[in-house]
Design brief:
Strand content: 15-25%
Radius of gyration: 22 Å
Keywords: Cytoplasm, Repressor, Stress response, Translation regulation
Family: Belongs to the IMPACT family.
Number of strands: 10
Main location: cytoplasm
CATH topology of the largest domain: Ribosomal Protein S5, domain 2
Organism: Columba livia
CATH architecture of the largest domain: 2-Layer Sandwich
Subcellular location: Cytoplasm
Number of domains: 2
Shape: globular
Structural class: alpha+beta
């Protein structure tokens, strides 16, 4: 007999509570409403060489009917290494259909990292580009690495062929409410865009503002839906805040927004914020997307979900009678 929605939801709650208890500070809630979580996993050495962040999104049907949506994040994890690890996780899921599997996934990843640490594999070589270099835990709760280019405006040149260099109309630019924490201030800016050229124009216009131009980081992401190809043109920029652009783009993908550019400016106040800085970046972005009707607020989403559940229940009753 299939589990009810309530039973499935309770299984999720129980699993999340257990994992939070087991992994402590290595467990990170990215977005409670969207059921997005990160678990930092290392090779158990006193000074870990190998670390992976497992990010998971728990869909409503997990664990009884749907698998978790997951991403493996580490600067060194590419190609064959990624595929082998991903295949191992898929195999665990298939062998445990309908069961809670996150603990099994975490320990499988740890097993692989321990094997690497005990082998002759050279230690991964990468460095952080954020000014918060003293934070050991901040940059591990990140999405896939995004290339950091010197000039955040120049990076758009490669997607704008010479023949299309027409002077398109500058879209309206909106500014969100700033968030301040321990002397650091975050503020989001938003503009509707339908071409990469418009993205470039908006960025140029924002950089004409001396205050925005002087920000420690101007992180941005955009998504443009191409009707003819039925695909998305999207990109992002960290501007020195390692992988924050990728995280912002991922938020926009989850919220399923399109034809919009979001820029988040951060003015660093001299006090390290650790992982909280990523929370503020995403909160700023989410708030301005809600304010300009690109996405429902949490309250509206809850009402919509409630209405959907009521409709489903009413339909079920009619079917039963």
């Amino acid at each position: 007999m299939a589990a009810s929605e309530e039973e499935t939801a309770q299984q999720q709650i129980d699993e999340i509570e257990a994992l939070s208890s087991i992994y402590g500070d290595d467990w990170c809630v990215v977005d409670e409403d969207e059921k997005i979580y990160c678990i930092k996993i290392n090779d158990c050495l006193d000074q870990p060489k190998w670390t992976v962040c497992l990010q998971v999104i728990l869909p409503p049907g997990y664990p009884t009917a749907e698998p978790p949506i997951y991403q493996l994040n580490a600067p060194w994890l590419r190609g064959q290494d990624y595929m082998e690890l991903a295949n191992s996780l898929e195999e665990i899921y298939v062998q445990n259909l309908g069961e809670s599997i996150l603990y099994l996934w975490v320990e499988k990843i740890r097993e692989v990292l321990i094997e690497k640490a005990q082998s002759s594999d050279p230690e991964p070589d990468f460095k952080k580009t954020s000014e918060e270099v003293d934070e050991d835990d901040g940059d591990d709760f990140l999405l896939d690495y995004q290339p950091v280019l010197e000039d955040p405006i120049k990076m758009l040149n490669y997607v704008t062929p010479e023949s299309h260099e027409v002077d398109e109309e500058l879209p309206p630019i909106h500014h969100g409410h700033p968030i301040t924490d321990r002397r650091s201030t975050f503020q989001a800016h938003l503009a509707p865009v339908v071409t990469p050229r418009q993205v470039k124009r908006v960025l140029e216009k924002l950089y004409e503002n001396k205050k925005i131009a002087s920000a420690t980081h101007n992180i941005y992401a955009y998504r443009i839906y191409c009707e003819d190809k039925q695909t998305f043109l999207q990109d992002c920029e960290d501007d020195g805040e390692t992988a924050a652009g990728g995280r912002l783009l991922h938020l926009m993908q989850i919220l399923n927004v399109h034809n919009v550019l979001v820029v988040v400016s951060r003015w660093y106040g001299g006090i390290l914020l650790g992982p909280d800085r990523f929370k503020h970046i995403n909160n700023c972005a989410r708030n301005i997307l809600v304010e300009y009707n690109y996405v429902h607020s949490a309250e509206e989403s809850s009402k919509q979900t409630g209405k959907s559940k009521k409709i489903r229940k009413d339909n079920k009753k009619r079917t039963e009678h």
